[in-house]
Sequence to fold (207 residues):
Amino acid sequence: MDYRRTFRAAAVTFVDLVARIPGDRWDGPGLGEWTLRDLVAHTAGSALRQVPDVLATPAESVTVASPEGYWTFARTVAPEVYAAAVAASTDLARTAAHELGDDPAAPIGELAGRATQALAAAGDDDVVSTPAGGMRVRDWLPTRTFELVVHGLDVAAAAGVEAAFPPDAVTEATVLAARVAAAVGDGPSVLFALTGRAPLPKGFSVL
Fold:
């Protein structure tokens, strides 16, 4: 699976999805305590806005060797550090939400363009500085596709519109979620759920 193609396709789909959000839904519920506008801003920030900056910041060595390692990193930090990071993410999302303006699809389309341009100039094995540590570009970008697909589906559900993410992008995100589950010891539970043998516990998440 071509991680560059899936990222570009997911970015294009996300921009199109944002353009189809009804005007009366923006200040309604999004995800958890976020409004839909907060959710869109968070997704654009984490999956698009930061891409050029990360790709332009080399790291000395690889400290996270896989996409699933990026997501499991959160389980290795102290609870108070994780809580502070979540709070900071929420504050950033709300600040960015106010900057989206009356036509959010336009600035988000620009962010997608910058992200894909930056990706085109990066090498697969370039080692860059991510929030979790040094990673190869080919390992980090699938985590951004994951953000686009998962939060894109969140946006679609909150907005009451259809999300048409390409099958390859959905497959990549789904496989990554399964790999995260296996990496943290939840693989058997997820496998049983996917094969109809037992339901997942209430509130279960691989993240």
Summary: Helices lie at 3-19, 36-55, 67-72, 79-98, 105-120, 137-159, 167-183, 187-194. The first helix runs from residue 3 to 19.
